Amino acid sequence: MPGQVLPSVLDRVPARVRELHERGIGAINVGRIGSGGRLLRTGLRLLGWPDEPTDAALTARILISLAPVEIQRGRPDAGLALLDEAQRLVAPADRGLLLQQRGLLLLLVGRLAEGLAAMDRAIPLLDGEVLARTLLNRAMLHQIAGRVRLATADLDRCQPIARDRGMDRLLAKVMHNRGYCALLAGDIPGALRDLEAARAGFAVHAEQLLPVVAVDRARVLLAAGLCTEAVTELDNALALFRGQRLTQEYGEAELVRAQAAHAVGDRAAARLWARRAERRFHRRGNETWAAVALLARLRAEFPPQRHRTAKFVARADQVAGRLAELGLANDAEAAAILAARARIGLGPRTEPGGRSDSRAGTPLADAATALRGRPGSHALLDTRLLRALAMAELGRATGRRDQVFRQVRAGLALLGEHRGRFGSVDLQTGTTGLGAELAAIGLAEALSRPVPAQVFRWLERSRAQAFGLRPVRPPADPATLDAVAELRQLDRVVRQAELAGRTDPVARRRCAELARTIRARGWQADGAGRRHAAAEFGAVAAELAARDTTMISYLVHRDRLLAILVANGRATLYGLADWPAVAESVGRLHSDLDALCGRALRAELDQVVRFSVRRQLDLLTAALLGPMRRHIGDRDLVVVPTDTLSGMPWGLLPDLRGRPVTVAPSATEWLHGQYRPATRPGPPLLIAGPDLAHSHAEVTAIASIYPASTILTGPAATVSAALPELAGRPVAHVAAHGHHEQENVLFSRLDLADGPLMAYDIQQLGATPDHVVLSSCDVGRMVVRTGDEILGFTAALLYSGTRNVVSSVGRVRDDRVPDVMYAYHRALANGAPAARALADCTRDGPLIPFVCFGS
Question: What H or E segment, with its residue span, contains residue 712?
Fold first, then answer.
């Protein structure tokens, strides 16, 4: 949020000084601080300053323009001294100009209260362009203090003045500041839209300010839980800043980089970036921002080592007091909560049923006092979540279990409401680190005195929550449509090059750039609120019993794999295995299965790989089913996986071969799937993609089972033809090459005749197919985010409303798939449920990692 140096209207002045003043202001406004300052000083010398100047009023105006140069050079006292000198010389008509410039400079050095007072006195004296700029600067001041309503009011006054006077650069700044206000208000899509408008304006009228927009965009991405993307944005901005002298903005970028490092768990990097920012602000004389940077450093140092906790508490208390003095209420509250959490860490832990000493003067009592009361109206989401987490930790430390659960429920509800404002699944599946900590403490408390049904409920409150939100189509504006069309065409170019045994690096880079652009446009969609809340255990248990089905819900706690078995209306909690060992076995199994589906192996190597597959399957059977085996019986099974188990080929486990297994993102989604209205009867859609030897034969064979089916093969199997045909189909089968994009999962895809059918495209459907079969490699694979939020091609179908997806979590042998798929559809046509049909057709066949996802 850069400051603005104000040009003045010069009249009755020597032409040479007028020219120097105008040129100096122009240079400063485009970031050429040094040359601008030299021009202004030359003008002052011509007027006879610092001796008694020949034109006092003009000298005052030039001094007013020169003062920010000293601020930018890190000499705030010199800058303010120039304004003091200008005050002695200023003409009555220019007093408003002097006051507004003093307010801006005080803002830039962090003296917020004095800056606000100066601007409040200036605004009644101003009009026109100067008034517009002063309103913008006061809005920035209100933003820093967290006063969103007042900031928005100033921007509302500023915008029409700037628009009527053709102040395009200022209009871009207004949109920039609107974006920041939207961020403070928790409106992530709105913030991204406003910042994109600001970026477009700066690209034309103030290119040097593009990295400033990038920093605030990174702030928004951090608030949405997209930490890796925020780091990329910041690193690009920091590289651009190095060629400029925007030292305040550079310091802010370093500060946000510290927050991003902390969000991804790199505490050492967070401390380093926070120290850099703190030193930079001190050099500028900006003690307000230096205090904010110190708070970022304290957050990176939390939790402190026990022998350093007392010192940490004292520093956090001191920073909280200093931030309160500076008028930064939200930051002050965050620092006070941090001190309280450190005190809680000093307090004794309690045994189940016991209570710790919380008498006056103890760390726990001091923490309770600090946390007493409701959060202030200024408190941002992050601070509210931090308070809920601290209160939950206090409840654990004092043995008040009800307090733990109450605070975690409140925090997760707040986070859910926040997510409901997002229309992008990409944002919906992100979460703040504090949200993850809240879910973890609730689960830990539930496991401390485990009642399986209660543990089950806590899992459902924090697992795959994005599925509980209403799906929203991403924006279909012309720019996005053009980018999608270009991406589809270039992806086909890349694919043809691969088939010819070569690469096209230029096309690849452009594809990646287009994918980033389309993804970012999707983030700007507003959410539609909740679709449904987490299911209650009783409802899930009753539905399972009615269907004679068992559910296993997996979780990881302190590097141990646990499972809740729900059968016959009851829940049982099992401790299973060491989680790192299980995750390693899953990875090895995938590697071995992929090797078997690659080029033909020598007989000896083929034997070795198959032995390894059998060994990993045996190890995983013992680890994943272990003591539950005898309680599962012969019933159908619903699996709710966690982490890498989302990509587990469950049907290959010896104990589960031939058993119907459905993999659901959560028990809630499985239950709601039972009640979802079925798609109206109609003919299936069968699609055969290009460059796949057996796809045409596969689709032709399946078509003999469904005589009325719609068939797209050869040149007719295009994305433009397939998408409208997919909408609302009871069954859709696609035999095409599949690609899972680990780094950009929204662009996982199926190859069709005119390019890729992407996960992104699925979100554009008004009505999805009820049941989808994807007989291709990898498109059942998923990226699993915190809270077991999943992304990928299969996940996109499930989010959009498809009831069941049968897809592969690994590579498959193309020549072996047609027979399996024919048998599957024959069973399906005869009335078998999807999981039963898949189990029957793969029971005695080759090792094909197909999984039935959904409900």
Answer: strand 710-712
Amino acid letter for position 274: A
Structure confidence at residue 17 (pLDDT): 85
CA distances from 626 to 587, 631, 649, 655 (A): 20, 10, 17, 10
How far apart are the C-alpha atoms of 764 and 768, rounded to whole Å? 9
- Cα dihedral 593, 598, 602, 604 in deg (nearest 10): -10
Nearest to 205 by CA among 178, 179, 232, 176: 176
Q: Name the DSSP letter for residue 274.
A: H
146 near 330, Cβ under 8 Å?
Answer: yes
Angle at 642 between CA 639 and CA 648, to 5 degrees: 65
Asked whether residue 471 carries a pLDDT value surpassing 90, the answer given is no
Residue 508: count of CB within 10 angstroms of its CB: 15
Q: What is the pLDDT of residue 534?
A: 87
pLDDT of residue 475: 67
**Which residue, 291, 283, 226, is CA-closest to 255?**
291
121 pLDDT above the threshold of 90: yes
Query: Residue 683: which of 710, 661, 644, 657 has the closest Cα?
Result: 710
- Torsion of Cα atoms, 640 then 644 then 650 then 656, to 10°: -70
How much is the average pLDDT of 814-826? 92
The pTM for the full model equals 0.85
Q: How distant is the alpha carbon of residue 842 from its chain centre? A: 39
* Residue 12 CB contacts under 8 Å (≥ 6 apart), including other chains: none
Dist. CA 176–CA 171, nearest whole Å: 9
Q: State the Cα–Cα distance between residues 785 and 776, nearest whole angstrom.
A: 24
The SS3 of residue 756 is strand
Q: Residue 807 is inside which H or E element, if any?
A: strand 804-808
Question: Which pairing describes strands 804-808 and 771-774: parallel, antiparallel, or unpaired?
Answer: parallel
Cα 713 from Cα 735, distance rounded (Å): 10
Mean per-residue pLDDT of the chain: 89
User: For 225, left (φ over 0), alpha (ψ -120 to 50), or beta?
Assistant: left
Chain-centre distance for alpha carbon 723 = 28
Residues 6 or more apart whose CB falls under 8 angstroms from that of 501 comprise: none
| Residue 95 pLDDT > 70 | yes
CA distance 227 to 257: 10
Alpha carbon distance 397, 386 (integer Å): 16
* 558 three-class SS: coil
For residue 465, with 0-12 CB atoms within 10 Å meaning exposed, 13-18 middle and 19 or more buried, which class applies? buried
What's the whole-number mean pLDDT along residues 593-610?
Answer: 84
Alpha-helix runs per DSSP H in 634-718: 667-675, 695-703
- pLDDT higher than threshold 70 for residue 2: no
CB-based contacts of 238: which residues, under 8 Å, 6+ apart? 211, 250, 253, 254, 257
Residue 118 near residue 106 (C-beta atoms within 8 A): yes
Q: What is the percent of the chain with per-residue pLDDT over 90, rounded to a whole number?
A: 52
The helices-and-strands tally (H runs, E runs) of the chain is 36, 16
Q: Is the pLDDT of residue 113 over 70?
A: yes
The string of DSSP codes covering 481-541 is HHHHHHHHHHHHHHHHHHHTT---HHHHHHHHHHHHHHHHHHTTPBP--BS-PPPPHHHHH
3-state secondary structure of 771: strand
Residue range 297-306: mean pLDDT, rounded: 92
Count of beta carbons in the 10 Å neighbourhood of residue 413? 13
Burial of 574 (0-12, 13-18, 19+ CB in 10 A): middle
Residue 728 CA from chain centroid, whole number: 31
φ/ψ of 661, rounded to 5, equals -125, 125
Say how many Å lie between the first and final Cα of the chain, rounded.
49
Partners of 732 in beta bridges: 685, 772
In which band, very low, low, confident or very high, does the pLDDT at 11 lie, cut at 50, 70 and 90? Answer: very low
- Can you give the pLDDT at residue 349? 47
